[in-house]
User: Which sequence fits this backbone?
């Protein structure tokens, strides 16, 4: 599932750009995270990159392409789709780190310590050294690369009917970005594969709605920095991003089905939404002036949102609260008591981003062993309990890092507006002190804490709040009312 992303769209040297760099450096120092790797890890990675263990099966004739943000270099996935009778055949190549990493080697140990790549604005704390994640292991164009090659047959309704994953070498034909691909689709110049991606993506979205699942079309928050000025805006996803995400979800569901059937694996889980979170979101919708009829279930409400509208984009971001409680569970022999992912309305596994997420490498190894009718490697079985714990801890750190960067940006955007008043709605009240709570401001679209000087905060009501102070160093914002 998606996470909130803050991305720098443009930066011109000046006070604001320097503040961003200094602020992110301070966050990294506070959290004791660094993009640098120990020398022994870099050395092992460089040696492995120079001597990969390539699989014998050659599938370089398949005309794969990658679609990612323009600046991305850690390319986990490459795609090709063919028509198959009245259905489709999806080929999805996933970077295969087994060509470079040996269990217990320095790169493996460090990856198990880190858990996942951390993202925030234009900063990145990678899971693996760049010589692997952005070079030898990345599915860059015109390069022969080792991959776990998924083949998924999809019928005319969008339902997956058959799955297989094998080790093979592949070669991407082009590194594409979402904006350019969407433009080519819109103007009719796109390659046939993108027409098929649209067909399969839309069918999968229909099936998602039918089974009660929901995808959050989470907008990116883009930062424009010019001189001493900061601007923070939402960018809605292109349709092709949602169709591409559906291919990843299709693969994750296929992987889960393999593991559930074999009763061994690693699943991504999410319990049903907490009714308290849903009630809070109703108040947020009111704050953002979005109608949410009481009889409309939250999956249908989320699907009704238009992220191209700023208030709807803010609502989609607020809906990430429904992902609270997500986690991973390993099993061998007995299925877990709660194996499902409620937002997907199915069993699900992470297998499509091993360059950026540790668990995907282990889950991928399980699936390729099952499809080959082989025993799951012992080094994977030994980690079925530990990897979910690692991902829980790394997920907490990733959220802290992401939120710290977001707080930095929001503080910088609001700093020139200290003393101004804003219309807001109280969306939550502190259980221990009804003078404190959280508000949603529509413009700029942010959530923040507020303190009432005159009495209890009115839950769900509109209030006028004053921005009393902003501290860029501590990334704190103080609103007061009354």
Assistant:
């Amino acid at each position: 599932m998606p996470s909130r992303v803050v991305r720098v769209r443009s930066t011109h040297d000046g006070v604001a750009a320097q503040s961003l760099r200094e602020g992110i450096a301070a966050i990294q120092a506070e959290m004791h995270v660094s993009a640098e790797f120990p020398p022994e890890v870099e050395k092992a990675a460089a040696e492995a990159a120079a001597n990969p263990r390539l699989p014998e099966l050659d599938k370089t004739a398949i005309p794969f392409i990658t679609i990612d943000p323009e600046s991305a270099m850690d390319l986990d996935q490459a795609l090709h789709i063919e028509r198959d009778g009245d259905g489709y055949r999806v080929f999805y190549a996933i970077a295969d780190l087994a060509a470079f990493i040996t269990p217990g080697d320095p790169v493996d140990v460090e990856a198990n310590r880190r858990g996942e790549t951390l993202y925030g604005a234009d900063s990145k704390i990678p899971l693996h050294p760049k010589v692997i994640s952005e070079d030898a292991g990345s599915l860059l164009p015109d390069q022969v690369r080792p991959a776990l090659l998924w083949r998924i047959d999809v019928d005319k309704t969008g339902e997956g009917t058959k799955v297989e994953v094998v080790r093979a070498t592949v070669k991407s034909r082009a590194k594409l970005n979402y904006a350019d691909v969407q433009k080519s689709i819109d103007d009719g110049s796109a390659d046939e594969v993108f027409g098929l991606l649209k067909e399969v993506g839309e069918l999968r979205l229909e099936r998602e709605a039918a089974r009660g699942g929901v995808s959050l079309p989470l907008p990116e928050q883009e930062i424009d920095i010019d001189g001493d000025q900061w601007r923070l805006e939402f960018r809605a996803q292109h349709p092709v991003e949602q169709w591409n995400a559906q291919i990843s979800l299709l693969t994750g569901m296929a992987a889960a089905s393999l593991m559930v059937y074999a009763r061994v694996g690693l699943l991504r889980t999410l319990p049903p939404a907490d009714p308290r979170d849903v009630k809070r979101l109703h108040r947020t919708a009111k704050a953002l002036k979005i109608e949410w009829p009481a009889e409309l279930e939250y999956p249908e409400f989320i699907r009704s949102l238009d992220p191209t509208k700023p208030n709807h984009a803010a609502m989609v971001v607020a809906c990430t609260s429904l992902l609270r409680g997500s986690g991973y569970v390993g099993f061998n022999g007995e299925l877990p008591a709660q194996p499902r992912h409620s937002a997907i309305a199915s069993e699900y596994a992470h297998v499509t981003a091993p360059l950026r997420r540790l668990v995907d490498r282990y889950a991928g190894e399980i699936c390729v062993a099952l499809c080959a009718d082989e025993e799951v490697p012992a080094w994977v079985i030994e980690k079925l309990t530990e990897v979910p714990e690692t991902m829980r801890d790394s997920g907490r750190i990733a959220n802290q890092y992401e939120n710290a960067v977001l707080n930095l940006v929001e503080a910088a955007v609001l700093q020139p507006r200290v003393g101004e008043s804003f219309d807001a709605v109280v969306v939550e009240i502190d259980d221990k002190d009804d003078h404190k709570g959280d508000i949603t401001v529509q413009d700029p679209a942010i959530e923040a804490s507020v303190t009432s000087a005159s009495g209890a905060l009115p839950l769900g009501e509109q209030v006028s709040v004053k921005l009393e102070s902003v501290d860029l160093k501590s990334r704190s914002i103080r609103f007061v009312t009354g």
